[in-house]
Design brief:
The chain is built from 18 helices and 4 strands. By secondary structure, the protein is mainly alpha-helical. The protein has a 4-stranded antiparallel β-sheet. Helix 6 (120-145) packs antiparallel against helix 8, helix 8 (183-199) packs antiparallel against helix 9 and helix 13 (251-268) packs across helix 14 (277-302).
Amino acid sequence: MSFLRPIPDWRVTLVWRLYGWAGLQQLWVLGGPMSWSEWFTYAPWVIHGLTACSLLLVLFGARPVLLLATGLVTSSLLWITASGTSQLLNFPGAELPLFMALPVGSIVLWAVASRGKPDPAELTRGLLALYRIAFVVEMGFAALHKMNQDFFDPALSCAAVLNQMLPQWWDTPVAELAGFLDPPVVVALEGGTALLAVVYWPLGLLLTLGFLFGLAVVGPTGFTAVSIAAAFSFVRGTTAESFYRVPRRWPIAFAASSVALVAYMARTYAGPPEYPWGQFAFYAVVVAFLAVCVASELVRDLRGRRLGGFRSAVGLDGPRSRGVRILLVAVAVIGVVDGLTPYFGYKYHFSFSMLSNLRADGVRWNSYVVPQWLRLVDEDPFIEVTALEIHREGGQPTDPDRELLLASFPPYEFRRRVYYHLVHGQDVDVWIRYQGREHGLTRLSRNPEGRAFLEALPRTLLFQKVLLPGPQSCVH
């Protein structure tokens, strides 16, 4: 199996072209309100690398050389973001581990499957099983983390925040339907998409497209797109000719419908400027294309054609070599361990715990499912603000959502909020508890020792921004 030639299966090609699309969506999210010229002038090298890899994957599909390059770029992107060393790449998106895991896992599996007498069919079976495992782990933990007391509280739940955002971002009656996304429905949809994809992929993928589109239209287009890419590994029991036949048979109708969809989204968008409407229009056209393809397969299947069964869904009739099977088991174990790290106390971000209201720390444990004895650390890595005085006289107005308050913060966020006050001309006196010790930091605008303490704090973006003393409100 050549390092430069494409992997010869249309479903693997589909997954990686969708991955390339997801990379472009992620770049759009990261760029925010910056112009393309500004973004590519000041962005770190990994942004240029991700742009090149995404475009090449869309154009040429899955080739080992592209997977290796993409794995190196996305690993660097995850490391730079998590380490907190970049001013531009400072958002700990839950999608970054998935962006990294798919190409890294693929190139390792390619190397394992290429030993001895290479079998392209075995490689295909292994890759599709890998992507299915990734999707099930992602959606399973996204649902598990939300099974907690605060997510199911309508006054606190991130589901309620989503319901409020949709009509604010989109001036269309369809957005008003978001009210049905109450907490139990969100958990059922996240868990149900993976289960239904295993049992009957046409319905599972249609549910996945609909649910993730509803999330994407309020911002996370990159996250939902890479999830869709992994989900389409469940396609089975059909051919490329059959899957794409409707758009190919009526290309003019599909193109005209796409133009109308773009125009409609441009007219109805009312969201913030840091999320340009174009990214949502691009997203909607791709999702519409995929939905038409899957719906046509569903209709054909209901007319009597069987589209594969449970065994082919989970890969039980897939990879046969011992090496590939061991690798897949290792990937599943790593995914489960990573998903449990919020409960271990090692990290919160990069574990699919986004927008979950989850608390698994020494002050509050709100999970309905995971027992507290699973916690492995004795001390939280947070800074608890025990007393605070902000000297606002002569200073500029500030946003209350970005100010210090009597709560607990990870070190990176505590430092950011202190400097937020200082740059607005407001001096700060704050008393904290950190690593079992009490600290008093007074008049920080002219306190060299206090500033040195702030600069020495860890910068890693591993925990949520703020932990409240009582029930947890919605925090990414």
